[in-house]
Input
Amino acid sequence: MELRAQIRSVAHYVPERRVTNDDLSQLMDTSDAWITERTGIKERRFVDTTCAGTSELGERAARLALAQAGWNAQDVDLIVMATLSPDLYFPGVGVMLQQKLGCRTIPALDIRAQCSGLVYGLSVVDGYIKSRQAKKVLLVCAEVQSPVLDLTTRGRDMAVLFGDGAGAMTIEAVEGDGSHRGILDSFLGSDGSGAEVLCMKLPGTATPGFISADDIQQSRVHPSMDGKLVFKNAVTRLLETAGTLLKRNNLTPEQIDLIIPHQANLRINEMVRTQLGLPPEKVFNNIQKYGNTTAATIPICMSEAVAEGRLKRGDLVLTLAFGAGFTWGGNLIRW
Ligand code: UT7
Output
């Protein structure tokens, strides 16, 4: 009998504090015109000082997803958490969710695939379900990135791009229901030669002394990126991922009902869309409102797409992501 990992629910949570491009231009030499033209972003959400960390946002999204699925925390038998911004250096955020949500002493693991966190996460969940190690899985993607951004002109190339937010999904093992719904295929890749092209080096064990006062003084504690190189690699790998998943499932781009790409730059997603020959309504974007929330972008998009009626039961969905590592990948899902 056919065993499938079916998505039961998806939900999201973003902090209330809106930070517009004009707000950022009060802090650094930037402008709404530059940010809008280069990225599509108009505003993003930042946590306030009362936020207890990424697990807090993850918990809020997870509770919404659990309620939507009609599950209680005791039903969950695996937590998969994706983030690049953990509450602590260790342990991971998965165990914090286990405790905060009141789950049983189930396995809880963290995935470190940055912007590809959701696509890696769905692939991992699919594997656990198909190997019969889990039946009811909570996948959470959450990021609190604003505290590590350099909100001065020196850090403007990165600071204007990122935001805070969380998305969560419940995914269930379903056997032979005849619907063919569920995760149909996943394709993942990585290329560590790009590790330092987009990274945050400190604190890190590769640095003698781990972290010093001088590092903080000299602003070496913020993320950095060669934007143009990341941009080029992103377009190439996203198209390669789409091509691979379409080909090995005998599909044409037109047969996909909705593409949900990672939200790093509206221009990247527009290039991918035009290369695939698809109309704007076949690609979901919300970077305008949230900026790049790293692992959380795709589940936030999914949650909004469902709420707006753009993602319906039975639709064929393609996720596409590229990010730091480099890592990339996608999932083909019958919703
Ligand atoms: O999610 C992970 C994956 N991330 C991505 O995929 C991001 C990929 N990269 C990008 O989206 C784009 O490269 C950026 C949006 C980051 C940058 O756009 P760009 O068109 O590549 O601009 P640039 O970095 O070449 O900078 C152009 C100019 C520079 O000035 P000069 O040297 O031409 O005088 C920058 O100093 O824009 C300047 N600049 C800014 N100006 C105003 C850089 N950041 C800003 C800013 N405001 N925030």
